[in-house]
Amino acid sequence: MNSEKPILYNYFRSSSSWRVRIALELKKIEYEYKPINLIKEGGEQFTEEYTKINPKQEVPALKIDGQLLVQSLPIIEYLDETRPDGVQLIPKDPIKRVKARIIAEIINSGIQPYQNANVIKKIAQETQSEEKKMEWIKFYLTKGFRAIESALVESSGKYCVGDEITIADLCLVPQVYSAFRFNIDLTDFPNVRRVYTELEKVPEFIKAHAHRQIDTPSELREN
Ligand SMILES: N[C@@H](CCC(=O)N[C@@H](CS)C(=O)NCC(=O)O)C(=O)O
């Protein structure tokens, strides 16, 4: 294995990047933070240099063990397999494992893509309407959170699956943050809110929070 310090290409508010930041914290892996500004004119994800790192022009990407890895969930699985000490992000028990992966997948493929920056930009362009864009976001986020709430009724304890932190929790926190950002009403999802409140207290989650990164704009910065 290569012993160079890992490099995480990411953006403070990107939910997929944030999942990996939490995993790196929980696994106690020191890393170099390389900000990729997704919203500045032109977008740094579209540069020739970054497209070589991630041809899909998205964050995160993680350089680790001499490998360049993309896609947050496989990255988290890799970290868990190669650093099995400490918090087990993918539960060993098959029932807990499938439940954690179901919640992670609802978020990864059933919510985040619908509110991804380039998708909502296109919706706004095609419809020429901010209102239609917000309707789209509200519809898909609410639909996704309804599915998560119903999964949590059955699987949650202190966290998404029982009382141990899993990959599902790494996906939940950034997605709830996005819901707040887009003013999605989570009143009907008490388990989502309860688990989120618990996770907000965990030191590694606090450190990985969008408001505490080197590229967090000063108006959002928290200590
Ligand atoms: N499935 C991918 C999703 C990556 C993704 O969509 N990243 C977003 C930020 S959360 C992005 O880079 N968007 C850039 C764009 O929309 O132009 C993962 O989990 O890594």
UniProtKB/TrEMBL annotation:
Q: Which residues form the GST N-terminal domain?
A: 4-87
Query: Do you know which SUPFAM superfamilies this protein is assigned to?
Result: GST C-terminal domain-like (SSF47616), Thioredoxin-like (SSF52833)
Alphabetic keyword roster: Cytoplasm, Isomerase, Phenylalanine catabolism, Transferase, Tyrosine catabolism
| Record localization | Cytoplasm
CC cofactor? glutathione
One Pfam family linked to the record: GST_N_2
| Chemical reaction(s) catalysed | 4-maleylacetoacetate = 4-fumarylacetoacetate; RX + glutathione = an S-substituted glutathione + a halide anion + H(+)
Q: Where would I find the GST C-terminal domain in this sequence? A: 93-218
**Key word ATP-binding present in the record?**
no
Alphabetically, which GO biological process terms does the record hold?
Answer: glutathione metabolic process; L-phenylalanine catabolic process; L-tyrosine catabolic process
GO-annotated molecular function: glutathione transferase activity; maleylacetoacetate isomerase activity
Give, as in the UniProt entry, the pathway in which the protein acts. Answer: Amino-acid degradation; L-phenylalanine degradation; acetoacetate and fumarate from L-phenylalanine: step 5/6
Entry GO CC:
mitochondrion
Q: What is the name of this protein?
A: Maleylacetoacetate isomerase
- Protein's organism: Brachionus calyciflorus
